[in-house]
Write a structure and sequence with these properties.
The complex is a heterodimer of chains A (about 290) and B (about 325).
Chain A (H helix, E strand, L loop, with lengths): L1 H29 L8 H19 L6 H27 L3 H27 L12 E4 L2 E4 H23 L1 H11 L1 H6 L4 H26 L7 H15 L4 H21 L4 H15 L8
Antiparallel strand pairs in A: 1-2
Helix pairs in contact in A: 1-5, 1-8, 1-9, 1-10, 2-3, 2-4, 2-8, 2-9, 3-8, 5-6, 5-8, 6-8, 9-10, 9-11, 10-11
Chain B lengths: L1 H28 L2 H27 L6 H15 L5 H23 L4 H27 L4 E2 L5 H24 L1 H11 L1 H6 L4 H24 L4 E2 L1 H4 L3 H13 L5 H20 L4 H15 L3 H14 L20
Antiparallel strand pairs in B: 1-2
Helix pairs in contact in B: 1-6, 2-6, 2-9, 2-11, 2-12, 3-4, 3-9, 3-11, 4-9, 6-7, 6-9, 7-9, 11-12, 11-14, 12-14
The chains are: A mainly alpha (about 290), B mainly alpha (about 325).
Chain lengths: ~290, ~325
């Protein structure tokens, strides 16, 4: 029983990371209709920025929130404005845009990854921060993962409030539901799409910062997190922030259970779950 | 215009036959390195042509090329010493054919981007399960393959390429090909006029994969060692897609030109700029999708059009975005 509760707790803590990994992609695909395969590369850049700040300058990793996030926000904004907007203007239909934008994201993936390899090499890096455990009875909590869980739930909550309570948030939601009608109501669609993509990149930066606190990081780690993000997004429903949170927790618990049986099958189980989900309910568990 | 079209009708087959004869003679007068380079070009040409036979015409972007290629590679890994070479190659094709039938049958419900990510993750799933199986059940990772000399591999690939081009040509001319391109233009309308949409898609997917599997089976003999990470490398999915778009999807020449130019460029980039190769590759990819939606062939056609009639009619929209035209 205790063993099972430990697995469950591990899953919940892992779920916090998965949730924040997925939130950015959910926004980018749910609103801007860009399946950003390069999402994991932005996570990698966020992780390395935090790593460099911590090991070279001795700055607290949590301060990465203030560096990695905004830096990637700007990068994301520029990429949407320069590349994806041009592509959108040139493609005839939204369906065609979805296909070509995914391929273009592959190109961006290669570019970002090779620049990162050029700067940071291909070695596996890491640092330890808050790497100890606290016990509640017989149940073990690792402190850094607990911190990550709290931060990702907080970010999720803040972002949810932003989307539902502020004018800009409402404009973003309007743009996601019906771009044409929102445009007629005076919402600057192009600006909203760029903002969405930028917020998505910012979330990737946050996720990277949190991941660097608990997992080893390397310049080719991106794809793995992109896949996880896609799975969580499909699990929780597109464009839904609470969906990403719940989807993240579900995948985390699923992963922890599989890992307890056989760690080697972890990724295979994720892919299998994902493919079954695509076939059975492509709109996600909480999708419209 | 009409006259030039009639000339082109005769010129194209003649040129193709000449090129094939020339390519068949190549190993007798060039150095081994050029044969290896041409072999790589042929391999990618097969992958790209097969990809565009299904994805180019139907508009479903498949990213499972690596799975079919890997199926071919693994066939050789298991049967390499047990069967004669031609039989192994056919077996590799059949393995890929069956895999594609299976995959086609389950992905029928998926559309657009969901189909792409499903096929992408199927490659990863096969890779992970094979890896786990080899480590935990067999206890040995990977396989050694008996090498066959480069010239033989080259000739087998040349034969496969010619067969594939013939198949594509015959399909495009038949009722079957017309039905296929009607799916690409508008699937619902195609279904309404009585095209067996489902059967056609799955069959085409399987036929195109057959050639990818054969290419994999023969390329395995040039590789010495194969494991799941080598065989199911996602680059085998991305490169053909990109090469086809780079060349242009309008006709059979596009993927061929795309594969040849791209492989050659890649070879030069890898040898000259090994550290910046991926960066340049990514940039080319982004620029191609942005500025060359109808590929090199489309660009050549546009230039040709401008040269032959210098004053194009106004108000006529330029061709573009052909590769993903799914509007009804």
């Amino acid at each position: 029983m205790i063993a099972f509760i430990n697995v469950l707790v591990n899953g919940l803590l892992l779920g916090g990371i998965y949730a924040i990994t997925a939130m950015g992609l959910s926004l980018q695909y749910g609103v801007a209709r860009i399946l950003n395969i390069a999402h994991g590369e932005f996570i990698m850049v966020g992780a390395f920025l935090t790593f460099v700040l911590h090991t070279k300058l001795g700055i607290n990793p949590l301060f990465g929130l203030a560096v990695a996030g905004p830096a990637l926000f700007v990068v994301g904004y520029l990429i949407q404005r320069i590349l994806f907007k041009t592509l959108k203007d040139r493609t005839p239909t939204p369906a065609a845009f979805e296909g070509s934008s995914m391929l273009m994201a592959f190109g961006i993936l290669f570019m970002v990854q090779s620049i990162a390899i050029f700067i940071w090499g291909t070695n596996v890096q890491g640092y330890s921060y808050l790497a100890y455990s606290v016990y509640l009875g017989d149940i073990r909590f690792s402190v850094n993962r607990l911190v990550i869980l709290v931060i990702s739930v907080l970010i999720c909550l803040l972002f949810y409030l932003f989307l539902t309570r502020t004018r800009a948030g409402k404009a973003i939601r309007a743009a996601s539901q019906d771009p044409d009608a929102a445009g007629l109501m005076g919402v600057d669609i192009n600006k909203m799409l760029a903002l969405c993509f930028a917020f998505g990149a910012m979330m990737a930066g946050f996720a990277g910062m949190l991941i660097s606190m608990v997992f080893p990081i390397y310049t080719t780690m991106g794809m793995q997190y992109t896949i996880i993000a896609i799975i969580v997004v499909v699990l929780g429903g597109l464009g839904s922030i609470p969906g990403s949170l719940i989807g993240g927790f579900l995948l985390g618990i699923f992963g922890a259970i599989v890992s307890a049986k056989d760690p080697g099958l972890n990724m295979a189980a994720y892919y299998l779950l994902f493919m079954v989900l695509l076939l059975v309910k492509p709109s996600g568990l909480f999708g419209r | 215009m009409k006259k030039s079209k009639r000339i082109a009708k005769y010129i194209v087959p003649v040129v193709i036959v000449l090129v094939v004869v020339l390519m068949a003679a190549v190993p007798s007068f060039t150095d081994p390195y050029k044969v290896v380079l041409l072999r790589t070009i042929l391999m990618f040409a097969i992958l790209t042509l097969s990809w565009s036979l299904f994805s180019g015409t139907t508009g479903y972007t498949s990213l499972a090329t690596a799975a079919f290629y890997g199926a071919g590679l693994y066939t050789t890994a298991y049967l390499g010493d047990k069967l004669p070479l031609p039989l192994i190659v056919v077996c590799g094709g059949i393995a890929a054919f069956v895999l594609a039938l299976l995959m086609g049958a389950i992905t029928l419900r998926l559309k657009g981007i969901y189909f792409s990510i499903f096929t992408l993750s199927s490659v990863e799933l096969i890779k992970q399960i094979l890896h786990w199986y080899e480590i935990n059940i067999i206890g040995v990772r990977g396989h050694y393959v008996t090498r066959v000399n480069d010239v033989t591999v080259y000739y087998v690939l040349l034969v496969i390429t010619v067969l594939l081009m013939l198949t594509i040509y015959l399909i495009k001319r038949s009722r079957y090909g017309l039905a296929l391109s009607s799916i690409g233009s508008c699937e619902e309308a195609a279904a309404h006029i009585g095209v067996n949409v489902v059967g056609l898609k799955v069959l085409t997917y399987a036929i195109s994969s057959f050639f990818i599997g054969m290419a994999g089976a023969i390329m395995a003999t040039a590789m010495l060692y194969i494991d799941s990470y080598v065989a199911f490398d996602l680059n085998y999915s991305f490169f053909p897609t990109l090469m086809a778009i780079f060349g242009g999807l309008g006709n059979i020449l596009g993927p061929l030109v795309g594969a040849a130019v791209f492989t050659y460029l890649r070879e030069i980039l890898i040898t000259k700029y090994p550290y910046h190769y991926m960066l340049i590759f990514g940039t080319v990819m982004v620029l191609t999708i942005l500025y060359l939606p109808s590929g090199l062939i489309g660009l050549a056609q546009n230039i040709w059009k401008k040269l032959t009639n210098p004053a194009p009619e106004k108000g006529l929209k330029t061709e573009g975005g052909k590769h993903a035209d799914t509007s009804c």
